[in-house]
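Figure-free illustration: sequence to structure, shown twice.
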Amino acid sequence: MSSTRVPKIEDFLKKEISQIISSEVKDPRYQFLNIVDVKCSSDLGVAKVFYTIINGDISDAPNNKSLEKFASMIRSKLSKFMQIRRVPKLIFKYDESLERYNNIDALLNSLSD
């Protein structure tokens, strides 16, 4: 498999999933999802979709069961216009890096005071 194919598909998935969320999803819980990154396996069988919550409150996020249904709906929409043999299985993962950054920043600020 080409070394540039996987990153191109990851970028495509990130853009398209964001577009589907903003234009076609009516559930207000999903309007707070911000797609940060997509990482695909080398065989394109699985894609981990990393997201954050725009307002920063994880309690506003949908639960895992609804995210699984959401992932299958997004996957079916992607299958209609993707030019690959099979659309990767989407696994949504909460990206905690922003929270970690804020914690480290707070610790550093407390040390400098």
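We now fold a second protein in the same way, so the two outputs can be compared directly.
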Amino acid sequence: MAYLTGYQYYENEGNTPEDLNWGSYQYLSLADVVNNFMLMYVGNDKLVNNVHRYNVLFHAKRAIQELNYDALKEIKVLEMSICDDLKLVLPPDYVSWVRMSLFKDGSLMPLTENIQTNYAKSYLQDNDCKILFDESGNVLIGTSLLDYDRITGQARDMYLGDGSMKGQTGYNVDGNWFFDYTVEARFGLNTETANVNPTFRIDKKSGVINFSSEMADQIIVLEYVTDGMEDGDNDEIEVHKMFEEFIYAYIKYVILTNKVNVQEYVVARAKKEKTALLRNARIRMSNIHPGRLLMNMRGRNKWIK
């Protein structure tokens, strides 16, 4: 890889953006990974031979994807406002969420995932409950009552506090209370939803996040995991240098696994090497410092009231 001068690193040689190279020394580009593997691990006198560059490129991408899912812990953070429809479209590189928070009064308030269904697709029906179709034979889609109740805030409250009478959650319609059980006859608390903050539920098929009515006109902070493919731009794909040797071991192992006439002990040895290098890289990335342990240990004598 090419090393940068101080002027190139800090000022990007006067070009825009100025921060293009900040922190870049921690990472290795996908092109460098593929070039290094082809140069050092492929040849007639090497264990891996007669392999095409596109094969190495494919396996290098798969290795980076697996690292992003499990070990790299490179979390992206997105901040957006929630409008009256109480929906947030998932980012294009979204794979899985880490934490959802409401940003209010300078603090991040964690949101709880709603385990109850709060959205649905509604088919239009006639008075005989038969589904209605358009002239092309497609089912007519109507307004879901679940969506309507969620957006207008008419759904049953799940928590103790507002929307409950004597600790019993139910429905308040025009000032009249309706309960699934007799008031004061239900005991315990659903700890999965014991949070006064708004709730959310991810509709993976539609690619949106649905929020409860309290999130209208609020700011959401989404922390999520991506696959590291940077929208398909190979020039932007990078991997942390601490995982460099693992990437090479992963590519070698996968190639040997799929080649014919390779002895089983060779494949087993490559697998063992890959696993050991991943474990070592994880330990390095854990970034455990004595100072952090000291800060945690200071609370060992704290009184819990």
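Summary for the second example: Confidence is low (pLDDT under 50) at residues 157-162.
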